Amino acid sequence: ARVSASCVRSARGEPINGILTIRDVTREREQEEQRSTFISVISHELQTPIAIIKGYASTLARADARWETKTLRSRLVAIEEEADRLNKLVGNLLYASRIQANGLQMDVAALDLGPLIQKVVRRLRAKSKEVEITLDIPDNLPAVMADRERIEEVLQNLLDNAIKYSPRERVVHISIHATGEEVVVSVRDTGMGISLRDQEQVFERFHRVGDSMTQSTPGAGLGLYICRAIVEAHGGRIWVESTLREGSTFSFSLPREEKAHLPMVVF
Length: 267
Ligand code: ADP
Known about the structure:
By secondary structure, the chain is α+β, with helices and mostly antiparallel strands.
């Protein structure tokens, strides 16, 4: 709390009354902390790809005719990848600030999750050969009421994380099951796991686990925040179960089509 005191005086200057003001500054301090976390996370995330792009561009600018095409191409591919990373970061920042300002507008319809998951998995398998992904999708899965593009983003984010935070073997298992009210999707990895304390916070904006593996992995702590906003805007839930050094399971639920009562805008 911030305390200030002032004194009311008579015409002759004698004190006749005092005013004590006590202001709770917890919220201001929290906002200040958030702002400085934001600036340090974003600066770091911007600096790394910019440094890589600058480094490769400098060597290319000085390349002479003896450089092999293969070498030139690998530098250009690296520049392209880093530009993609910058693009994704800026996209996520805009997304998160739009959520804060206006909530999320949903474009919902009946959606069959099975084929959508298979599509996302196919794309991932084509991109990355070292990842082993297994699927457990039951027949006759009921449809959910959802915004197809946004749920695809949630799946993509959870799968990217499962791979990013698995330093050893990259094995990901996706399962779906239906309950009376909802359909639940789970993404399980055998990666680094998340401590109990961090499990409570990973869905917060800019929260990243403080260990060295996470610090050396690109990311700004926005993916899960965006996932949670999307799932909750559907009237669903998102959560994590995890054991440190063994792996994590991220799950989210969506209301079954016939049970959906959708809030159209949240927050
Ligand atoms: P980012 O990956 O960009 O940092 P996210 O919001 O997606 O941001 O994740 C927040 C943090 O949660 C990550 O920085 C990481 O520390 C932790 N995390 C997320 N997914 C996993 C996972 N599958 N295994 C271990 N840690 C994870």
